[in-house]
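Pasting as-is:
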Amino acid sequence: MHVFETAIRLQHTDAAGVVFFARYFELAHAAYEDLLDALGQSLPGNLGSAALLYPIVHAEANYRAMVRMGDRVRIEVTVSEVKSRSFALDYRFATPHGEEIAVLKTVHVAVDRATGRSTRLPDDLAAALGGAGRLD
């Protein structure tokens, strides 16, 4: 599990002053980038010249509590599945005291930039994600 903590900013909220539902995915993506950095798989370092891309092909969310500007959130990122061509991440949003705010899931697939077709995850990424015994 990887932990990412942040504060809710004005741009995350809607007219009612609570986090707009789609902003949870922006926050989850920041946690995803932080996870990749921690695994030595930096997204900014690889994105422009990478032969492979990892777009999200599935996303889901359940919201449990309202969060407002200035609140701090803890995002726990867990790799829930590593397959030969994809991986899934679970995000648990919580207050600093542990109250669950939201749970999200994203599924990413490895895509060859040149062909636009799915391809096998690189061994180093699969291993970094904990997928030595990949599900195929």
